[in-house]
Design brief:
The protein is α/β, with parallel strands linked by helices and 343 residues long. The protein has 15 helices and ten strands. The strands form two sheets. It has a five-stranded parallel β-sheet, sandwiched between helices. Strands 7-6-8-9-10 form a five-stranded parallel β-sheet, with helices on both faces. α2 runs parallel beside α8, α10 packs across α15 and α11 packs parallel to α15. The longest helix is centred in the C-terminal third of the chain and has 19 residues.
């Protein structure tokens, strides 16, 4: 049956979260080594869904650790042969498979240039783990669907626990996530079905969020594009108002990720402006009930820095539902494979 793997793997996420939280002490051991080295800034390398996890980690590093952070461009090493001095730099590589040649080569090169390299993967025997100095196994289990669901959220949670531990935290904000995820999946099913019916025939969608939720907007757009073949674009709420909003009209479906906190509050004017353009706006998140949207998927409240771990759940289900409604097979999107090898 089409979509059975993706559906099952979405449903597994509360149990995956509980397992990761139980392994917080193991992640804290890696974090202690990072804290000892006192990096002066962080670089994050990733592709695909993992790139969105890296974007989330960038916010965590900048806000929770107050260190500058940036997203590394693998091609500067693999194609152009650049050799920057990376002494005292944390180089964090995020890859579900740990098998992409460009990420392996970039991580190996970063270590040779003085960086403290850390691999975050779902494959502890991967080539990436073999070249990184330290590694974290996200422990999501085998993922059969091509579209990443449980591996994505497991990566987010592992990154949160790592970075929180570096600052001396105990992962308190993560403790309730398994229960909150189960609640989110059980209470939003009807709202997701309604959203599938609203957007079944739309061809153009925009996803948007601010702060931590920028990662959710990016991952939501990718899920819609790769499973339903929609022309889906993600923008920061701020960037959306700086130009792309001009392309939004009544034929555009807009998903606004709006969880309680500074990022969600900054989205209020964005949602208002987009609604005035005539777009159908779906607000998703713990602050969705208070947004001037066309429809809403309301999630249980949690600490803002872990909200992306919950926000993506209904967006995964929306992508699944739209793919099936449009006659697709979200387990096997056309032209895609589980491991993409780039250089």
């Amino acid at each position: 049956m089409s979509g059975q793997h993706m559906s099952a793997e979405i449903a597994e996420q509360p149990a995956v979260f509980a397992s990761i939280v139980d392994r917080q002490a193991q992640i804290a051991e890696v974090a202690a080594k990072l804290a000892e080295r006192r990096p002066r800034f962080a670089l994050l390398a990733a592709r695909g869904s993992s790139d969105h996890a890296a974007l989330y980690a960038k916010y965590l590093v900048e806000v929770l650790l107050e260190l500058p952070a940036g997203l590394a461009s693998a091609s500067t090493t693999t194609l152009y042969g650049a050799k920057p001095d990376l002494s005292d730099v944390l180089f964090l590589t995020v890859s579900q498979s740990g098998g992409s040649p460009d990420l392996i080569e970039t991580t190996e090169a970063a270590r040779a240039r003085g960086a403290l390299t850390v691999a975050v993967t779902n494959n502890p025997s991967s080539g990436l783990n073999s070249v990184a100095e330290l590694s974290i196994d996200i422990g999501a289990g085998v993922e059969n669907a091509v579209a990443a669901t449980k591996t994505y959220t497991a990566t987010l949670l592992s990154l949160y626990l790592l970075i929180d531990s570096v600052r001396g935290g105990q992962g308190q904000a993560a403790a309730p996530l398994a229960a909150l995820a189960a609640e989110a999946l059980s209470t939003t099913e009807s709202a997701v079905d309604d959203a599938v019916a609203r957007y079944r025939y739309v061809e153009r969608m925009v996803t948007t969020g601010r702060g931590y939720s920028s990662a959710s907007a990016a991952e939501g757009a990718l899920k819609l594009a790769e499973t339903s073949y929609l022309a889906a674009r993600a923008y920061s709420g701020a960037d959306l108002l700086h130009g792309p909003v001009a392309a939004i009209d009544a034929d555009t479906g807009v998903v606004a990720v709006t969880s309680a906190g500074k990022g969600g509050e900054a989205m209020r004017d964005v949602v208002n402006t987009v609604r005035q353009r005539g777009a159908d706006v779906l607000a998703v998140g713990s602050a969705a009930a208070d947004m001037p949207a066309s429809s809403r998927i309301v999630l249980p409240p949690c600490a803002e820095e872990v909200a992306p771990i919950l926000e993506i759940l209904p967006l995964q289900r929306l992508a699944l539902g739209l793919s099936l409604a449009r006659g697709g097979d979200p387990d096997n999107p056309r032209g895609l494979s589980k491991v993409t090898r780039t250089r």
